[in-house]
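Re: weekly structure request thread

Next one in the queue (110 aa):
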Amino acid sequence: MGQETLAKLTTTIQQSPTLSEVQKAELLRLLQTLQSEMTALAATHDAQAASITRFTDMSTQEVVRQPRDPQLLDLALQSLTSSVSDLETSHPQLVQLVNSLCVLLSNIGV
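Done, posted below.
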């Protein structure tokens, strides 16, 4: 995940009136961890890293915008999950992290 994207998402999350402080803290923690995983992934799988970054951004934007569109959020989360599906064997921690992020975003979006 690029520093610019991470900085933008961090600002969006911190300024979101729709998220509780606990939700903000958990999202920011997951994004920081994802940043580390994405740096390692980008060295060998740049296109997949870019895809995961885009879908993470889209998913986060959908969960903080008002009014929320549940269909768009579901689509963004499905796309994010799909973007890591080929990495289950080679990067299991990344897949687990993305799944945790999707669950959190989904729960916030409900």
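The chain has a mean pLDDT of 89. DSSP finds five helices and no strands in the chain.
Next request, please.
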